[in-house]
């Protein structure tokens, strides 16, 4: 289970104030558990691991096996924000670091599209598609988001031209709203198999719905392990206690933000496989908390690489941040450092030590240096990088996000601010219905 340790914050805070914030976080916990807070019609994610139907896994496996029998080796997964980051995080965390170069995958390769509007990206994706046997999962809860809609229009046309319309219908699966939206209508018309994004689960909380589960299964990853880890977290975090890791995390980050001016939280990771865990976390916390003029700005660094770039700022720059460090306790592989008779690099003092030992010492040394530089440190530990621990982290961060946002006093489950750029983009693209906005925005240039 995920462990949270806040002793690296103690020297920065008043212990009595911490107890007050634990009280606030426990009140927020009650609101979340009673489902009585703002946005409470979006709490379906809370019971997802315990209520995930076996049929969802079986249906996902059936699609995986059917596509495998056709020789599909590339699945273009289209979606943006919550409709892609969870699956991307799982694929990155659970793949061999060099799986592409090793080419040893037994399942189809999952690649992502519809998360940007780069013409070069989509053109180069089509270059790859031309070399491979292709299927597509298109994900949009609303069914109207521009970026995935643009990508899907291009990929759909490509698949239809290459395989014919009837075969295309078996190579495209949609994940969308049960009743409404353009993707739902299109899927019905074209005869695509569809999976449902539950009404009561927002995009960024949807990794344990078909949105995450189908691509994870089709990519050959251990979805049962993820669900088992999430289930353990669901049970553990349901216990009301001042020691509950979600309460501790929510209390400390709100205290640092509200009382000590720590406006930025940096999620620090020491394992390249968790790079996208940070991207998923940034969306979850940024979109859930950043509203009403409030919220901690979620940032991330990947160490030790970023110690040689962002490390300078974190050590000596403006003291606006605290760090939340992911501590992976054990490596899953073992590589030790050899003795070198010449010792020109003067590393013989490390001979016989594991690389992971050096990674741990780098982490501990950095935590102390940053504390000395005025940066409070929260530690989140998991045993290793595997499906079970990833599932625990998914559920932990979701639950803690609900507790934390209610502690802050905002509705975690809406995202009104995301509309502003869309209105301007539609006006600039001269979308029908936006004529007035188009005329107004053009005057600004
Ligand atoms: O968390 C959210 O709700 C958003 O990030 C959405 O997931 C994102 O905007 C994609 O929306 P949709 O799935 O409707 O295309």
Walkthrough of the structure:
The chain has 445 residues and is α/β, with parallel strands linked by helices. It is 50% helix and 12% strand. The strands form two sheets. Strands 1-10-9-7-8 form a five-stranded mixed β-sheet, with helices on both faces. Strand 9, helix 15 and strand 10 form a beta-alpha-beta unit. Helix 17 packs across helix 18. It is globular and about 65 Å long. The chain starts with a strand and ends with a helix. Bound molecules: 5-phosphoarabinonic acid.
Strands, helices and their partners?
Elements: E1 3-5, H1 15-34, H2 48-51, H3 54-69, E2 74-78, H4 85-94, H5 99-102, E3 109-113, H6 119-131, E4 134-140, H7 146-163, H8 165-171, E5 172-176, H9 182-190, E6 193-196, H10 210-218, H11 223-237, H12 245-260, E7 264-269, H13 275-289, E8 297-302, H14 310-316, E9 321-328, H15 355-372, E10 377-382, H16 387-408, H17 419-428, H18 435-442
Parallel strand pairs: 2-3, 2-4, 4-5, 5-6, 7-8, 7-9, 9-10
Antiparallel strand pairs: 1-10
The protein binds 5-phosphoarabinonic acid.
């Amino acid at each position: 289970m995920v462990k949270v340790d806040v002793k690296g914050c103690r020297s920065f805070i008043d212990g009595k104030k911490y107890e007050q914030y634990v009280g606030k976080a426990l009140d927020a916990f009650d609101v979340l558990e009673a489902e009585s807070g703002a946005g409470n019609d979006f709490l379906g994610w809370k019971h997802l691991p315990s209520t995930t139907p076996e049929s969802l896994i079986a249906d996902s496996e059936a699609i995986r096996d059917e596509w495998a029998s056709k020789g599909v080796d590339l699945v273009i997964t289209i979606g943006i924000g919550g409709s892609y980051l969870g699956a991307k995080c799982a694929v990155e965390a659970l793949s061999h670091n060099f799986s592409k170069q090793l080419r040893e995958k037994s399942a189809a390769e999952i690649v992502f599209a519809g998360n940007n509007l780069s013409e070069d990206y989509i053109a180069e994706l089509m270059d790859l598609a031309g070399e491979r046997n292709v299927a597509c999962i298109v994900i949009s809860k609303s069914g109207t988001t521009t970026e995935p809609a643009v990508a899907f229009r291009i990929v759909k046309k490509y698949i239809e031209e290459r395989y014919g319309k009837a075969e295309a219908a078996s190579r495209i699966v949609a994940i969308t709203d049960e009743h409404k939206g353009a993707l739902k209508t299109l899927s019905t018309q074209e005869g695509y198999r569809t999976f449902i994004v539950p009404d009561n689960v927002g995009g960024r909380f949807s990794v344990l719905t078909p949105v995450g589960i189908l691509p994870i299964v089709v990519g050959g990853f251990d979805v049962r392990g993820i669900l088992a880890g999430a289930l353990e977290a669901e049970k553990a975090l349901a216990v009301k206690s001042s020691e509950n890791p979600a309460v501790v995390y929510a209390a400390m980050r709100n205290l640092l933000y509200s009382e000590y001016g720590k406006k930025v939280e940096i999620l620090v990771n020491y394992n390249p496989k968790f790079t996208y865990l940070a991207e998923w976390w940034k969306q979850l916390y940024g979109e859930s908390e950043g509203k009403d003029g409030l919220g901690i700005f979620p940032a991330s660094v990947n160490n030790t690489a970023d110690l040689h770039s962002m490390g300078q700022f974190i050590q000596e720059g403006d003291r606006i941040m605290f760090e939340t460090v992911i501590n992976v306790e054990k490596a899953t592989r073992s590589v030790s450092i050899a003795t070198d008779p010449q010792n020109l690099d003067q590393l013989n003092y490390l001979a016989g030590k594991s690389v992971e030992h050096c990674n741990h010492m780098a982490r501990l040394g950095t935590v102390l240096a940053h504390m000395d530089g005025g940066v409070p440190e929260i530690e989140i530990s998991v045993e290793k990088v595997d499906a079970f621990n990833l599932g625990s982290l998914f559920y932990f961060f979701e639950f803690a996000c609900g507790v934390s946002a209610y502690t802050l006093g905002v509705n975690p489950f809406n995202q009104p601010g995301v509309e502003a750029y869309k209105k301007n983009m539609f006006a600039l693209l001269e979308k029908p219905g936006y004529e007035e906005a188009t005329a107004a925005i053009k005057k600004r240039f």
